[in-house]
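#struct-pred
JK: can someone run the complex with protoporphyrin IX containing FE? inputs below
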Amino acid sequence: MVGLSLSLPKRFQPASVWGLYVVGLLPAAYCFYLGATGNLGADPVKTFELFLGLWAIRFLLLTLAVTPVRDLLGWNLLRYRRALGLICFYYVAMHFLVYAVLDQALMFDVILDDILKRPFIMFGMAGLVMLIALAVTSNRFSIRSMGKKWVWLHRLIYVIAACAALHYALSTKILTVEQVIYICLLIAMILYRAYRPILMLRRREARLRPAT
Amino acid sequence: MSAAFGSSSWAEGLAATKSNYTVDEKLTPIEDVTTYNNFYEFGMDKADPAALSKDFKPRPWTIKVDGMVAKPQTFDVDALIKAFPPEERVYRMRCVEAWSMVIPWDGFQLSKVLDAVEPLGSAKYVAFETVVRPTEMPGQNATFGSLPWPYVEGLRLDEARNPLTLLAVGLYGETLPNQNGAPVRLVVPWKYGFKGIKSIVRITLSDKQPLNTWQAANSGEYGFYANVNPAVDHPRWSQATERRIGEGGFFSSSRHPTLPFNGYADEVASLYSGMDLKANF
Ligand code: HEM
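RT: done, structure tokens with the ligand placed:
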């Protein structure tokens, strides 16, 4: 398969990763600026909270898309996967902080009650806890020292995707078209991961078969 | 001053007399009252009603009142306004989504219309219906993820006759903007906002409890009574407190405690004496 090379000259690569962090976090910064200056509409706290949740889903999808994009299109974006995953984590963390600090004004009894009682919050919280585990082991040292265990741990991203889909699906009164699209994309990423070993096996067989 | 926000070409001055029905709290700015709306007939986003209701024509308009009444009638909305001169009522508005506003409505008591049609002794409930106009209301064209139309709501007859229950035809001294339910909507200040059905074309008295739209869509989350009650959680959030809309940016907004019956317990609690308000949410 002829892979389309998207690679930059080597010396620009670290800069492009840093650039991704900046661009990725720009929406949050801009939305925060609007909210802090009273320009985010009638219900700024809720608007910001939902905005951050939606961008968390977007970066989760981008993180999950790196592998299928390489398999199916031949574009190698592996270099950006850690940054994409971490940006997703930052959005979820901010989403949670806005919920806890600005929306619930740190009423711990209410927050605890929400986490223990409401299924959609439970799924969100489970997603956040797993993302924390992945974020703290996303450094080179962990990868080297954990070996195979690291690979297994980081497969949790598919469980996180399932939790995020459930959290999002259960968070509204009735499903919107936008929600259905995002949830279908998340399900597609999870299904692709299940299908991938079969795809890889077929490719290997095709390569081994002598050309006729 | 509000013409810029009231998209309706009918947004014009409405003579309304002051009334004793008021609350001693800061009014929610008209920009917020007219741009942050749940009115799924125009779309599911809260900004949709203001953005997508420009083509809606709230005149001419009639309301058919029928069912178990001695004198069924069809009223022209302007004739109603003439017959029952609007008064200003400043009410708290508590949405089931845990946010709230304080709104100066202009309108007349629903009881006046009910008296005019003379309900029969057998009538126990009042059902309301919103107009269906897919050509003017884009949300009614949605093929997915919306509600079945027409939107319907209902009250018990004694709730409908309570002096607090208002048919609003204006807010902030002007005719009702399209996005707020022009030309005439229900305001029941001790109930969650979704009971306040908008753009009403029909009122029917009956001996059967109507199945309101949200209860039909999701009976686990929305009931018939929908009385504001800080002690009964919504399945997805607590109802103990509310975000007051229009208090500014992130750091100037605050949560307010939610009051039983939205602060109108003195006027309406007796309607429900002996009832289990947890079961009848
Ligand atoms: C994997 C982690 C998470 C993701 C991807 C996520 C994503 C989302 C999304 C996309 C929405 C809906 C946005 C919209 O309607 O436009 C949402 C709503 C919400 N999330 Fe999360 N979330 C996560 C974790 C959490 C956590 C840990 C909490 C709090 C404990 C939380 C609390 C909420 C709340 C309160 C809502 C708003 C529901 C509403 O008022 O409509 N989420 N989230």
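RT: quick notes.
The pocket of protoporphyrin IX containing FE is lined by residues A 49-50, 53-54, 56-57, 60, 92, 95-96, 99, 115, 121, 124-125, 127-128, 160, 163-164, 167-168, 171 (CB under 6 Å).
Chain A touches chain B at residues 35-46, 48, 102-105, 107, 110, 113-114, 117-118, 120-121, 170-171, 173-177, 179-180 (CB under 8 Å).
JK: thanks, will look after standup
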